[in-house]
Design a protein that fits this description.
Helix content is 70%, strand content 1%. It has helices spanning 22-32, 38-68, 73-81, 87-107, 117-124, 126-159, 165-176, 180-191, 197-206, 218-242, 247-254, 259-270, 272-287, 291-297, 305-311, 319-344, 367-395, 411-419, 423-453, 460-468, 475-486, 497-520, 525-533, 538-549, 551-566, 572-575, 583-592, 596-621; strands at residues 109-110, 113-114.
C-alpha cells in the first residue's frame, strides 16, 4: 500500500488538508493583510460604492414602489410572481451577481488598493503559466477523446442492433454519477506505480521489477479525465441520435452511399449542435476538475489552474491572487459559449419526423459482436473495474498473510461511521446541504421558468440570463467569489453550511431551470387561463395546475441538482471548515492520511447514495432523467 501513497500537496498535512477553519481564516486574513493607506482605503471604498450604486438605487426605488402599492395578500402575490415588479430578478441578481462582483473586485485589489498587480504576477510566475498550459492541454485532450468515445457508444446504443445495448447505456449513465475524485482514487488503487493492483499483476506475470503504467503522470491524469467526461458526451450525442429521423440515411443508401459515407455526410452534420455542445461541455468539465488533478497531478508535480487556486488559500490566504487566476477560466467559458452560438447561429438542424415516420436500426451483421466487445471493454475499463476495486478495498483489510477470507471485514465502515470524527457528520452535512439546494433550486427554477415563458414580467430575458449564467462559471471560480463576498462585511457565511448550500444552489440552478423550462413548453397556456377565469390567483394556478403538470421535469431537475451537489468537491474544498466538512472533503481528508480502507468505504457510501437518487429518477422518468433538457 505504501507504493500508492502520494506526496502530500504543498502546504497540507496528511490529517488536516485544505483551508483552515472559518474563524482562524478570518483571523489570518486580518493579520496577513497590510493595512491600506488612508488615500488607498477611501479610493477602494469609493470605487466599490460606485460599482454597486446603480443596483442599490434600483432596488430601493422598486421596494418603495412595492410598499406604496401594498394592499395585503395581493401585493405579496405580485411580489412573488413578479406580476408587477421585478422582485425575482433582484433576488437572482443578488444570488448570482454578488459573488461575481466580489470576484472581479478582489482580482483588482491589493494591499495598496485597486491595481493590476495580481494579473501582472500571473505572467511573471512560471508555475501559474505552466498551470494554465496544463489546464489547456488537459481540457483539449479530454474533450477530444471523450467525444470520440461518447459518440461511438451513443451511435452503437441508439442506432445499431448491437447486443446488450441497454446494459451499456445503464453503465455509462451510472459512470456519470461517479465523482471525478472517486474515479481518480480508484485508479490510484489500480495503477499506482508500485502497489497498484494492475501493476502488481503485471509484475507477477512477467517478472518485471516495475509496473507497465504509472497513474501519477500527465497521461494518467488525461486517462482519468476522459473516463470522467465521456459520459457527458454520450448523453448529448445519444439524445441527438434518438431524436433524429433515419429516412435521410436510408435515402442516401438507396442512392449508393455506404454506411460510413451516410454517417459522415448525413448523421454527423445533423448532430452538429450536439457535437459542438458536447465538445464545449466536456472541455469545460475537464478544465474545472479539481479532485483528479489533486489526487493524481499534484503527486506528479503536474499542476493545473484549480490546484493552484487551492494552494493560494494556504496561509497567508491570497484571495486577490486566487480571483485573478480564476477569472481566465470564466472568460474561457464565456468565449466558448459565444463561439457555440456563432457556429450554430440561426441554422436549422431539425428534421421532420411524425408518428408514422420510420426509425430503423443499422444492421451490423457479424460486426455487431465486435461492436459489443469494444463497448463492453470501454465500460469495463472506465466503470466496472475502478468501482469493483473500490468496493473490494472497502471490505478488505491488508495483512502479511496474503489473500484470505479472514481479511474481509466491515471494520472500515465501522471506522468511518462511528470512530472517524468527521465520518457520520460529513454524510449528514452532505445530505442536508444537497437536499436544501435541490429543493430551493427546483422552486426558484419553477418560478423563473413560469415567469419567463409566460412573459409575465418586463425583463423575462434577464431572468433566463441570470438562471443560466452560473453555467459559464466553473465551481471553484464561483467558490472564490463566495469567499470574497461572504467572509467579511455585513453577512459572514464562511464557516457555515449556508455558504455550502448557496454554492450548490447557484451552481446547479441552470440544470433545474432547463428541466423546468423544457417541461413547461409542453403545457398549453389555455389551462392556466381557464383557472384564472374561474377566479384562481397566479400562485394557486402555479400550485394546482402548472406544477402538477410539469412534475416530471421538476423532479428530474431536483434529482440532477441533488446528485451534483452531493458529489461536488471543486467548490466544497474552498468553502468547508473543520465544522462543516462534507463527504467529498472527508474522503480527501482520509486520502491524505493514507487510510485507503476508509477512502474506499466513504466512496462506496457516496456512490450508494448517488445511485439511489439516479435509480429513483430512472424508474420514475425513464431514460430522460439525465437529459440536458429533461
Amino acid at each position: 500500500m505504501g507504493g500508492n501513497t502520494p506526496p502530500t500537496p504543498l502546504g497540507t498535512s496528511r490529517l488536516h488538508p485544505g483551508p483552515p477553519t472559518g474563524i482562524t481564516w478570518l483571523a489570518m486574513a486580518d493579520t496577513a493583510q497590510t493595512p491600506l493607506s488612508t488615500g488607498s482605503f477611501y479610493r477602494s471604498r469609493i470605487a466599490s460604492l460606485l460599482a454597486i450604486a446603480p443596483l442599490g438605487v434600483w432596488t430601493v426605488v422598486h421596494l418603495w414602489d412595492n410598499l406604496s402599492a401594498f394592499d395585503g395578500p395581493q401585493a405579496w402575490e405580485r411580489a412573488v410572481t413578479g406580476a408587477r415588479h421585478p422582485f425575482n430578478q433582484i433576488l437572482l441578481a443578488v444570488l448570482v451577481l454578488l459573488p461575481v462582483y466580489h470576484l472581479v473586485v478582489a482580482s483588482f485589489t491589493t494591499k495598496d488598493g485597486f491595481s493590476l498587480a495580481n494579473y501582472a504576477q500571473l505572467f511573471r510566475v512560471r508555475r501559474f503559466q505552466e498551470a494554465m498550459l496544463n489546464s489547456l492541454l488537459l481540457g483539449i485532450a479530454s474533450s477530444v477523446f471523450g467525444m470520440l468515445i461518447g459518440t461511438l457508444l451513443a451511435w452503437l446504443v441508439s442506432r445499431t442492433n448491437m447486443p446488450f445495448r441497454r446494459v451499456v447505456r445503464v453503465c455509462v449513465l451510472a459512470s456519470f454519477a461517479v465523482p471525478a475524485f472517486v474515479n481518480a482514487l480508484s485508479w490510484v488503487l489500480l495503477a499506482g506505480p508500485n502497489a497498484g493492483s494492475l501493476n502488481q499483476l503485471w509484475m507477477g506475470l512477467t517478472g518485471s521489477r516495475e509496473g507497465f503504467i504509472n497513474i501519477f503522470s500527465m497521461q494518467g491524469l488525461i486517462i482519468v479525465s476522459v473516463a470522467t467526461v465521456y459520459p457527458l458526451a454520450f448523453i448529448f450525442m445519444h439524445n441527438a441520435f434518438e431524436t433524429m429521423d433515419t429516412e435521410m440515411e436510408r435515402a442516401a443508401r438507396l442512392l449508393g452511399a455506404n454506411g460510413v459515407r451516410a454517417f459522415f455526410s448525413i448523421t454527423l452534420p445533423l448532430a452538429r449542435p450536439a457535437i459542438i455542445a458536447g465538445f464545449i461541455m466536456t472541455f469545460l468539465e475537464a478544465l474545472a476538475l479539481y479532485g483528479a488533478p489533486a489526487a493524481i497531478g499534484v503527486p506528479a508535480r503536474v499542476y493545473v489552474v484549480t490546484t493552484q487556486v487551492w494552494s493560494l488559500f494556504e496561509y497567508p490566504p491570497q484571495v486577490g491572487m486566487a480571483a485573478a487566476l480564476s477569472l481566465p477560466l470564466a472568460l474561457v467559458t464565456v468565449a466558448l459559449l459565444c463561439l457555440q452560438r456563432m457556429l450554430i447561429g440561426r441554422r436549422g438542424f431539425a428534421n421532420i419526423r411524425g408518428k408514422g415516420g420510420r426509425w430503423q436500426r443499422a444492421d451490423l451483421g457479424a460486426w455487431k459482436w465486435v461492436a459489443a466487445s469494444v463497448a463492453g471493454l470501454i465500460v469495463f475499463i472506465t466503470f466496472v473495474l475502478p468501482n469493483a476495486v473500490l468496493v473490494f478495498r472497502s471490505f478488505y483489510r491488508e495483512s502479511y498473510r496474503g489473500m484470505a477470507l479472514a481479511n474481509f471485514t466491515f471494520a472500515h465502515y465501522q471506522y468511518v461511521l462511528f470512530d472517524y470524527i468527521d465520518g457520520l457528520r460529513s454524510i449528514r452535512h452532505s445530505l442536508v446541504t444537497s437536499l436544501a439546494a435541490a429543493t430551493l433550486a427546483a422552486l426558484l427554477a419553477l418560478i423563473a421558468a413560469f415567469l419567463s415563458r409566460r412573459k409575465m414580467v418586463r425583463f423575462s430575458g434577464l431572468l433566463v440570463f441570470l438562471c443560466m449564467l452560473p453555467l459559464a462559471i466553473p465551481s471553484m471560480v464561483f467558490a472564490v467569489g463566495l469567499v470574497a463576498a461572504y467572509s467579511s462585511g455585513w453577512m459572514v457565511l464562511y464557516g457555515t453550511l449556508w455558504i455550502m448550500m448557496l454554492a450548490y444552489l447557484i451552481k446547479n440552478l441552470p440544470y433545474a431551470f432547463m428541466s423546468c423550462n423544457a417541461a413547461l413548453a409542453s403545457v398549453h397556456v389555455d389551462l392556466e387561463s381557464a383557472a384564472r377565469v374561474l377566479g384562481a390567483s397566479t400562485l394557486r394556478t402555479v400550485r394546482d395546475i402548472t406544477a402538477p403538470l410539469i412534475r416530471n421535469g421538476l423532479l428530474s431537475g431536483w434529482i440532477v441538482v441533488f446528485a451534483n451537489s452531493l458529489r461536488d468537491l471543486s467548490a466544497s474544498v474552498l468553502l468547508y471548515t473543520s465544522a462543516t466538512t462534507v463527504i467529498s472533503t472527508a474522503i480527501m481528508d482520509v486520502y491524505y492520511a493514507s487510510a485507503w480502507g476508509a477512502v474506499a468505504a466513504l466512496s462506496v457510501i457516496l456512490l450508494g447514495i448517488n445511485a439511489i437518487a439516479i435509480m429513483t429518477g430512472y424508474r420514475m422518468f425513464g431514460r430522460n432523467v439525465l437529459s440536458p433538457n429533461a
